[in-house]
Amino acid sequence: MEVVYIFNYTPETFNTALQRLKCSIGSLQNQNVRIIVLNHSNSKLTPLVAFPIFEIHHPCYDNYNKAKSINHVVKNYIKGDYYLMSDVDIIVPLDYVEKMNQLSMKYKSCRVIPFIHRVMIEMYSFDYTEVQGYADTNIKNNQSLAAGIGLIHKPSWKAINGYDETFVGHGPEDHDFNLRIAKVCPVINDYTNIIYHLYHQPLRMNNSKNNCKYLEQRYMDYQNYIIANENKTIEEIGII
User: Fold this and answer.
1) Position with higher pLDDT, 225 vs 35
2) Domain 2-219 CATH assignment equals 3.90.550.10
């Protein structure tokens, strides 16, 4: 199974983000995966990460568009019908990929969203059990569905013309994607497959207000809105 990461950090936040990425990849080390990282930061990751990764190094921090970056990777590098979307901060259980594989075989097509618990203190570990001990599951707001993470069916991604590249920077392109892909394949909210999110300082989201406004406008017409990037073909999206 191929696992996709988008890495986009300034020199000031690069080192702590790299530590979290190493932990996230470490939690996948004994699972049957091919890890693909699109790295928009200035420094290359491959010499700094002990685990094998396929790195696409394309520095462009100031012109970041996460939807476009994901589309680029899926269009050009995903070989199978399914892939896993991950994030720098995510720690997964030892049977995470196996469970996702089973669901991909059970359904002809599906989008699976795992359940996430958030660690509220700074710590670094790829050991799922250790990280689990630091997550305060008694706080309701620290738990939710992981909208941007999980199993994605590539033919369904293609059917809706990928992620909507109108969203600038990051957020909430994943919510938009889930609403649209639900029109072409089942979306499974998997509360039994629990992942953990390592703590970090809030990220800069300069375009958050405009992105949320655009999502609200789209939400009013989601019954008819399925295809993103209306003026582009699948070959024209994801150009970075």
Assistant:
1) 35
2) yes
